[in-house]
Amino acid sequence: MMYLIDTNILLRFTDRAHAQHANVRAAVQKLQAANHEMRITPQNCVEFWNVATRPIPNNGFGLTPADTSQLLHLVDFVRYLPYRIVAVDPALV
To answer: Which domain holds residue 58?
Structure first.
């Protein structure tokens, strides 16, 4: 089965000091052990980037862009959800 992973899962997985880190890590390991696929979208990456680079006093991680990029690449348990761009009906715009 395929699961779309919420950004909060990515954030808790990468923040070892967070109270939910161990629970999220255990859930990810359980899904991996059962051969389930975990996917993210580009939106997850944007949300992750925003929190990771936001200053700590503003409820962020306070990381540099370089550190954030490296951290996002370390979340290797997920794969990008394939997506396609579809034509937009001009009448809807």
So the answer is: 2-83
Confirm if 10 and 78 have CB atoms less than 8 A apart: yes
Domain with residue 69: its CATH number is 3.40.50.1010
pLDDT tens, per residue, the chain with 93 residues? 888 889 999 999 989 999 999 999 999 999 989 999 888 888 888 899 999 999 999 999 999 999 998 888 777 667 765 655 455 556 655
In a domain, 10, yes or no: yes
Closest Cα to residue 53, out of 38, 39, 75, 72? 72
Q: Is 84 exposed, middle or buried (0-12, 13-18, 19+ CB in 10 A)?
A: exposed
Q: Which residues contact 74 (CB under 8 A, 6 or more apart)?
A: 14
- Structurally, how many domains does the chain consist of? 1
Residue 89 in domain: no
Q: Which residue, chain included where needed, has tokens 């396609």? A: 84
